[in-house]
Amino acid sequence: MTYNRHLGNCSVLDAELWGILDGLTLIHDRQYAGVMIQTDNLEAVKIIQDSSLSSSNFVLIRRIHLLLVNAELWVIQHFPRNHNKVVEV
Predict the structure, then answer these.
(1) CA geometry: angle at 48 spanning 5 and 75, to 5°?
(2) Which SUPFAM superfamilies has this protein been placed in (predicted)?
(3) SS (HEC) of the chain
């Protein structure tokens, strides 16, 4: 499966959160029970793990939290870029 989305001019964090949101939407649509999110963006991990941000005005975070509430099991991990064996072309 490939993925692309035109985001225009945005921060790296915004781009990462959009990717996570779109991935969660696909998983939700296919009715998978669980999800493992791995990202090299530590800030994204911290934001998603912080449940106090579910009432945040940041729409992306609220939408991610809503999809995670519907998942029976979910985990998010920081996966440092230098540990990633897959090379981006």
Answers:
(1) 95
(2) Ribonuclease H-like
(3) CCCCCCCCCCCHHHHHHHHHHHHHHHHHHCCCCEEEEEECCHHHHHHHHCHHHHHCCCHHHHHHHHHHHHCCEEEEEECCHHHCCCCCC
Query: 1: which residues sit within 8 A by CB, 6+ positions away?
Result: 26
pLDDT in tens, 21-78: 999 999 888 888 889 999 999 999 999 998 776 656 688 999 999 999 888 899 999 9
pTM for the full predicted model: 0.81
**Domain count across the chain:** 1
Q: How far apart are CA 84 and CA 19, in angstroms?
A: 17
> Residue 68 domain-assigned?
yes
Classify residue 50: in a domain, yes or no: yes
Domain that holds residue 37: 33-83
